[in-house]
Specification:
The chain contains 6 helices and no strands. The radius of gyration is 22 Å and the shape is elongated. By secondary structure, the chain is an all-alpha fold.
């Protein structure tokens, strides 16, 4: 009799699994943070705490959705997204100079959120990279054992790494 699947696992299976390129992850982060900052400015009068929490969430998603080949781009794209997104929230008036001064002040005053989001993205990317390297090493070992004729392979001709098992509900 199959075991029942917990609801949390079912919810995670429905979670999207896009794989963004380095440029795509940067565009995702910049566009999402700018849109969320505009909403924050309209609805909550530019609450930096709300913007910071949303930034941590977007940083995590950006690091989770970037391709394995472009993992190093996520911690680079995240601070750029923070800087572009904070434009609508930053207090600045008096033309271009006032706007730039407001942006620089907001970046200096809220650097903790910026560092926190970058750290989160860096940690997620590091864990994903280590797991990817471990999986590749396991596949290579399995392939080497199969080619060496280890017990259990019989007359089977193996030309590539074993396929992952399919998940069934």
């Amino acid at each position: 009799m199959p075991r029942p699947v917990p609801p949390v696992v079912l919810a995670l299976r429905r979670f999207p699994d896009p794989r963004l390129t380095g440029l795509g992850s940067g565009l995702f982060c910049v566009a999402t943070m700018f849109g969320l900052a505009c909403l924050d400015g309209l609805l909550l009068d530019g609450s930096i705490a709300v913007y910071g929490v949303l930034f941590l969430l977007v940083s995590t998603l950006t690091a989770m959705w970037v391709r394995h080949a472009d993992l190093v781009s996520a911690p680079v794209a995240v601070p750029i997204g923070f800087a572009v997104g904070i434009l609508p929230v930053a207090d600045g008036s008096g033309g271009f100079g006032g706007r730039v001064m407001g942006l620089v002040t907001a970046l200096a005053m809220h650097a903790g959120w910026l560092y926190g989001g970058t750290l989160v993205a860096g940690l997620v990317v590091t864990v994903r990279g280590i797991r990817h390297i471990a999986r590749r090493a396991a596949r290579r070992r399995a392939l080497a054992q199969a080619r060496a004729g280890s017990p259990g392979t019989g007359a089977q001709q193996v030309t590539s790494a074993p396929r992952p098992r399919r998940r069934t509900p």
